[in-house]
Amino acid sequence: MTITDFSRRLRAGDTTSEAETRACLERIAQDNARLNAFILVMADEALEQARRADRELADGRDRGPLHGVPMSIKDLLDVQGTPTTAASRVREGHVASADAMAVARLRDAGAVFVGKTNLHEFAFGTTNEDSAFGPARNPFDDTRSPGGSSGGSAISVRTGMAMASIGTDTGGSIRIPAAACGLVGLKPTYGEVSTDGVVPLSRSCDHVGPLTQSVSDAAVVYHVLSGRAPATAPATTLTTALTPAPVERLRLGVPRAYFCDLLDDDVRARFEEALDRLRAAGATIDEVAIPHAALTGPVYLHISLPEAIAYHRTTLDAMPERYTAPVRQRLEWGKYVMGEDYVRALAARDVLCREVDAALSGHDALVLPTLPIPAPPIGAASIRVGASDQLVRNMMLRLTQLFNVTGHPAIALPCGATRDGLPCSLQLVGARSETDALLRVALASEAQVSSAFTIVT
Amino acid sequence: MLIMGQIVPDAVEGYLAGLNRLADDVLLDIARAGVEQDLPLVDAEVGALLRVLATSVGATRILEIGTAIGYSGIWLAGALPPGGMLFTMEMDPERARVARDNFARAGVSDRASVLVGDAQRLLAKVAGPFDLIFQDGDKKLYGPMLDRLVALLRPGGLLVTDNVLWSGEVVPGFVANPQHKTADTSAIIAYNTQLSANPLLMTSIVPLRDGVAISVKTRTELEPLERAREALRAADFNQSPAPSLQAPASSPKS
User: Fold this and answer.
1) What residues contact B12, with CB distance under 8 A and at least 6 apart?
2) Is A116 a catalytic residue?
3) If both were cysteines, with which of A54, A215, A296, B58 could A442 make a disulfide (CB 3.0 to 4.6 Å apart)?
């Protein structure tokens, strides 16, 4: 059930927050042992929150579209009174003394927290394999990764353990698991959602955002997270106030060089079909170029690694054995980035920002795939892509991390499945500080590319 | 300082010494002088190990922390080809002078350079990469220096650390009456943990004499970063951002 459907039915008296929260907790009890989506299940607190939400509504207090909505929170954000593990033994003994700003806003908006979700340790990875709590598993095929780092968040929403989830995205960590699990994942414009109370990975690339079942739901959660929803919305604005952009007037730019160079055959086919559907609905699709896109990885590494090691240095020296080996390895690289190369990366970041702006000029959004491959098998270091073998890590980050470097808002939308039934995803990228405009394009596109696609889990 | 026979029994040490044909008269002389002055020199077995290791990695640039009177330096310098260089750091100017004399006696003055001063400060000034680094300085500084030494090492290069078993005192309860300062012992215990946990190093500890840790800087671990660095340095930003290939469209306003 989407947030939008739930909100309507809740106020029509067809369901209660307690009933839907209980249903989520039952799904967790049923499937979490297999999928490992949750690090902490907050069953008692959630039911109490849900009953309070139901009482408030009965008393005439309506907190708006998230009132009574059971949600999960990536275990990288502080929820008062619970440990924020970051899926790492390094964090043993931690208990959050206050809610993260994003969590506080959800709580004020009436959301119910069913638990804290599994992630790639310290969000420093894209597969959710390296976690002190064990790997999370893809609901479509539990031998495969759910994507990461917000893997548990994606699983929880995909399987009905939560109606929506909050993730973080430093190189693609919301959009990648959304793509691998057939969901909508929104990375807003950099800085729009507070990262206070979130364990940082790379402060200048970190974003907080929602993983949801629909674009409308993403818009609703985004407006609460960014503090732009009224504290008590009238019942008439239970769904997003945003309307779809008129699809027949949409002008989209597709940057094929680099972004379509290395794609799994089925992913490529679904992407081209999505473009065909958009064209058939009247959208114009232009070829655009981001000349230095291939520098994204080097720039990202030279910015994110020093930022990561600056945060982790003390614990890395004091308790290196508490990190999982692959995460520790990548953190160690941070010690070997030279100042002059960091400065080069900052200069290149400016160039990339201008190039993305230029590609967006005259367009409502850029359109490209989210993930070049379907969800990879757990434990695979490399994977066959077309005619060559590629490193899984490079493939996972390849199409998303540019927009962490530049700060442009980006959203992942389901657009069909591979012949093996694994989800494929389309990414739309908008102008900076125009997240609402991007959401309107996404609403219009979703109707064309996701409607023909039924998820089977 | 070192309690003989604690780790390798005396009889076995004697047997090893009898087989060692690498020491020459100058080295034997210096070793005798070292014993007379109670200086903590490596012995001929560790010396031979250093020369074998330096030769095996084809060392042309070697760094040593803790020259003393140049005994281990001669073993190391003896592995260098013409044009190779050993940089060795010594805090005490008098010992450094003796070391220079000994390098002259051993005929390696042309490839051994003694740097006098605080090694932590000197390390900030030397430039890598080195093929082999021999750490035999102040035990309390082993840990704080490790990152810098690893950074100075080439991939595939060796970090060799002496005294890592510390007469066996690093093993809790093994030595009934510890002779070493607790602070030094704790520092070495922490250092050994750091060595084994460092993902850039692969380490094996050889229980020869006072324990020698041999760590190789792994070749592959930094490759992704090195490739990224090359790409970044090679980037050409002279071309301006390419505009859209198509004419601008108006944004939907409804």
Assistant:
1) none
2) no
3) A215
pLDDT-wise least confident of A134-138, A211-215, B2-6, B110-114: B2-6
- What CATH number did the domain enclosing B199 receive? 3.40.50.150
Residue B33 lies in a domain: yes
Beta carbons of A301 and B228 less than 8 Å apart: yes
pLDDT tens digits, B84-143? 999 999 999 999 999 999 999 999 999 999 999 999 999 988 888 899 999 999 999 999
User: How far is A411 from A403, CA to CA, in rounded Å?
Assistant: 10
| Amino acid, res. B49 | L
Q: Using CB atoms, which residue from A286, A301, A335 is nearest to B244?
A: A286
Whether B67 has a pLDDT exceeding 90, the answer reads yes
Question: For residue B246, what is the nearest residue in chain A, using CA coordinates?
Answer: A286
- B174, part of any domain: yes
Q: Do B235 and A295 touch (CB under 8 A)?
A: yes
Q: How far apart are CA A317 and CA A256, in angstroms?
A: 43
**More confident call, A87 vs A238:** A87
Is residue B87 helix, strand or coil?
A: strand
Report the CATH number at residue A168.
3.90.1300.10
Whole domain around residue A166: which residue ranges?
A: 1-457
Express each pLDDT in A376-429 by its tens digit: 999 888 898 988 888 899 999 999 999 999 999 999 999 999 999 999 999 999
Known catalytic membership, residue A149: yes
Once rounded to an integer, what is the mean pLDDT over residues B169-177? 90
Other C-beta atoms within 10 Å of A451: how many? 9
Tell me which of A17, A145, A165, A173 is the catalytic residue: A173
Domain range for B175: 10-233
What angle separates helix A325-333 from helix A296-318, to the nearest 10 degrees? 110
* Domain presence at residue B161: yes
Q: Is the pLDDT reported for residue A235 higher than 50?
A: no
Chain A residues within 8 A of B201 when measuring between CB atoms: none
Cβ–Cβ under 8 Å, residues B135 and B160: yes
Probe site for chain B from A309, A317, A393 (most B CB atoms < 10 A): A317
Considering only CB atoms, B233 lies closest to which of A294, A320, A344, namely A344
Number of structural domains (chain B) is 1
Q: Structural domain tally of chain A?
A: 1
Question: Is this structure's pTM higher than 0.80?
Answer: no
Answer whether A319 touches B (CB < 8 Å): no
Residues of B with CB under 8 A from a CB of A: 147, 151, 193-194, 197-200, 221-222, 224-225, 227-229, 231-233, 235, 237, 239, 241-252, 254
Q: A228 CB near a chain B CB, below 8 Å? A: no
User: Which residue among A72, A74, A145, A214 is the active-site one?
Assistant: A74
- Whether residue A204 lies in the annotated active site: no
Q: Is residue B239 part of a domain?
A: no
pLDDT score of A186 more than 80:
yes
